[in-house]
Design brief:
Layout lengths: L4 H9 L18 H7 L1 H4 L4 H9 L10 E6 L18 H4 L4 E3 L6 E3 L3 H5 L4 E7 L9 H5 L19 H8 L10 E4 L3 H4 L13 E2 H7 L8 H4 L2 H17 L13 H7 L1 H5 L7 H7 L3 H15 L3 E5 L17 H25 L6 E6 L3 E2 L11 E2 L3 E7 L6 E3 L1 E2 L6 E3 L4 H11 L7 E3 L5 E3 L13
Parallel strand pairs: 1-7, 1-8, 4-12, 5-6, 5-7
Antiparallel strand pairs: 2-3, 4-11, 8-11, 9-10, 13-14, 15-16
Helix pairs in contact: 4-13, 16-17
């Protein structure tokens, strides 16, 4: 049987494995040229007082520590086979999995999420996310904006930024020695929405490159940098080297942080996952999403405000057994225990470290999956509704918000649109919801559109 064009595209574009062990590239140290272009490049243009002032900075302008940790389920998780089970529906809708009770009376999850079921009292499950504006991209839901879409006209997202970029611009990081927004994803373009027309200064930093970004270049020693005269000479030399190098294509957004980063090694330390105990690393899982989740926790702990994690591109796109990711039984079933383990471990780890109340954890994808199983044991895209998980942030949990009909076709109670998600995130981060940014045409653009409001059930 000839595969559909969509399925063939998935087969051709798939990653080598859904959950391979994390690549060593994730922790690589960058080259001297990379460092010069993205690290001390900014320092070279600073005056000494500016540098020393940055080195003395210890917090985020007196703001309370707040962070967002978003898990992106690339491809779109089936709501019926995870958090919105339909045990009384016909088999073609119910799917192959049984359901289990949770720690919340009357609430059931799929049998393959037993760890999350055991801590359901610490979670909020939103079963009524309106994703009609979303497409098979991260744009709409990561922007929290129904106007941000894949347009196929050369202006994807219509210029609107991701929520992480808004946090980067209007709040910044929790520690001036760290970036505000970091993405941990293997497929950047497919899984991470950036800053749109807000500008590259607020784009996410690629986590796979951050560790090497601030390594000392050869011949520059910390003890020499401590001496002010030597420091001036080093900067003069760096300016000359930069003048001889190719023109930098992006303005370095860490100019007032670079000196502190070089001397303190905070960014490098945040990436030292091998400092964690073998037991904790095993608990997170020694695979792509497990390693990234642990690294994300370390980045939050180090002062990053917004971290986005994607295990692999498209790995929840379970159309059927004819595509690379398989159907529900062959494809989704092996993945559910992985996100089960990751959320369970992360929530308990954050709680043990006193970080859960200050870290809002989100888990979602671009849309849900079709209520009726396909002929090849999968489910197709479904933009009527989807489910998402919320935890932490000092918010109210131990609840299910909203509902879909008995067959999972559509929302019947408490529709939550993308803009309500954005308003919730920004409110959590202490950002004025009436804030605007200015696009290249000089027009003010609101950070929350279409009347978005924070989700009241969480407050």
């Amino acid at each position: 049987m000839i595969q559909s064009q969509h399925s063939q595209t998935h087969v051709r574009s798939s990653v080598a494995a859904q959950f391979q062990p994390a690549s060593k590239d994730l922790l690589r140290v960058g080259s001297r040229r990379w460092f010069l272009q993205t690290g001390l490049a900014g320092v070279a243009g600073l005056s000494l007082p500016q540098i020393l002032a940055a080195n003395d900075a210890t917090g985020s302008g007196g703001k309370p520590r707040k962070s967002i940790l978003m898990f992106w389920l690339s491809g779109g998780l089936s709501h019926i086979d995870s958090w919105d089970v339909k045990p009384n529906a016909p088999a073609e809708i119910r799917g192959p999995f049984d359901s289990i009770a949770t720690s919340l009376p009357g609430v059931r999850f799929t049998e393959h999420l037993p760890l999350q079921a055991s801590i359901a009292h610490k979670l909020s499950i939103i079963r009524s996310v309106d994703c009609k504006a979303s497409n098979h991209t991260p744009i709409t839901m990561q922007a929290g904006n129904p106007l941000a879409k894949r347009t196929d006209n050369g202006n994807d997202g219509d210029g609107y930024p991701s929520m992480g970029s808004v946090v980067s611009k209007f709040r910044g990081s929790n520690d001036p020695a760290m970036p505000a927004f970091v993405g941990l994803a293997d497929s950047w373009k497919a899984d991470v929405w950036e800053s749109g027309q807000m500008g590259s200064d607020f784009a996410p930093v690629k986590g796979s490159e951050l560790a090497g970004r601030f390594a000392l270049p050869e011949g520059v020693l910390v003890d020499r940098l401590q001496d002010r005269q030597s420091l001036r000479r080093e900067f003069d030399r760096l300016r000359a080297e930069l003048d001889r190098s190719e023109t930098m294509t992006r303005t370095d957004r860490y100019t007032q942080q670079a000196y502190d980063l070089v001397l303190s090694g905070r960014a490098q330390k945040a990436f030292a996952v091998d400092e964690e105990s073998p037991q904790l690393r095993d608990a997170y899982g020694r695979d792509s999403i497990g390693e990234k989740a642990l690294l994300a926790r370390r980045l939050v702990e180090a002062g990053v405000s917004y971290v986005l994690v994607s295990g692999a591109w498209g790995y929840f796109d379970h159309h059927g057994d004819e595509v690379r990711w398989g159907g529900i039984e062959k494809g989704l079933k092996p993945l559910l225990p992985r996100i089960d383990q990751v959320i369970f471990t992360l929530i308990n780890d954050l709680e043990a470290r006193g970080l859960l109340d200050s870290t809002l954890v989100l888990m979602l994808g671009e849309f849900g999956r079709g209520p009726v199983m396909t002929k090849t044991a999968g489910r197709d895209h479904w933009t009527n509704c989807m489910s998402m998980l919320v935890a932490g942030g000092g918010l109210k949990h131990g609840q299910v918000i909203g509902a879909t009909d008995p067959r999972g076709y559509g929302i019947v109670d408490r529709s939550i649109p993308p803009q309500d998600l954005a308003a919730t995130v920004f409110s959590q981060m202490g950002i004025d919801l009436s804030s605007h940014w200015v696009n290249p045409q000089g027009r003010p653009v609101p950070i929350v559109v279409e009347g978005g409001k924070p989700i009241p059930e969480l407050s």
